[in-house]
């Protein structure tokens, strides 16, 4: 134990430990005095290869890592340290401990949850780092993790949610259907929504997830939903409750709900569901899947290529003051539409990834909630591909017609404008 408590810079016994954003712990006397002319931060930890140190560069004073400080004190008097290895948020043994610049530590998953709920450090109320920083760059406090492994290893595995087959947790309901692969965001400002958010957040494999189903008024609740990943969080002001949260999310996997019950908690009715991830259907015919996927990709590219921008421009060539209007008309399943969609949802996946492709296209096409739900329910990939292909066929004929009509109308309007006649 004593050999563990060593400074990553001077290699002597840690004195007033400071944990840097790279996850290495050094003595506070080993931290460099901040100089204004320094352009590059050179980490004093010899093993560190990380170029960015968010806490260290912007933070003048380093706070002593309070957990490690207490451990050092306990070790020096041969005291028990196990109780010091508890997370102040979940009160369980620290799992992937992360220490922020205030010197306080909690589990990485707990930290993400706190941030997602717009909360501050549990112990000192200091603001936590940005969600995107925590999500992408936060480093585990290496020394503390080693100590946890040393003392409480078997507990760590318990928090891995993914290894179970069925989950039981509160469900989140949304107004629209979120499909796998879809990027979207929703804002939460009602206190009941914020309460549910707190209950329904799941942490697994370094990310935060939320099980979501579509909100319906009918007596039978939907059986299928999506596990969405929280990729960003912004705090907003709400005139109603004071606090609002804007979640940036991305659909990951489908869930199938086997049981839902209403539970009263803190005076609020919440839905607690038993659900599992939808299994991959192995009954699909590979050849049919491949050819259908190729067909879909080709049809989408054809739609985008069959752009009416050129024809529109010649028809209304004299009219330069309405570029947005012409782009709008051409944008109906045209090149602009594909560009916009690729910007929002990422590049159109290749037919070699039919599962990704089918979700991408379903997200991009203007289809009804019922159609989206049908797609969400379909367990066979082959079936999903056929559904999507039928929508494309249907939409492309309608859209060609609509675009032509709109372009003609646009040209007529411009021709009739008095100043056009004068030109
Ligand atoms: Zn040192
Ligand atoms: Zn470092
Ligand atoms: Zn925790
Ligand atoms: Zn703190």
Automatic annotation (TrEMBL):
The keyword Ubl conjugation is annotated on this UniProt entry: no
SUPFAM superfamilies registered for this protein in UniProt: PUA domain-like, RING/U-box
GO molecular function, one term: zinc ion binding
Domain RING-type: residue ranges: 7-47, 87-125
UniProt cross-references to Pfam families, sorted A to Z: LON_substr_bdg
Domain Lon N-terminal: 168-396
Keywords: Metal-binding, Zinc, Zinc-finger
InterPro entries hit by this protein: Lon_prtase_N (IPR003111), Lon_prtase_N_sf (IPR046336), PUA-like_sf (IPR015947), Znf_RING (IPR001841), Znf_RING/FYVE/PHD (IPR013083)
Listed transmembrane segments: none
Protein name: RING-type domain-containing protein
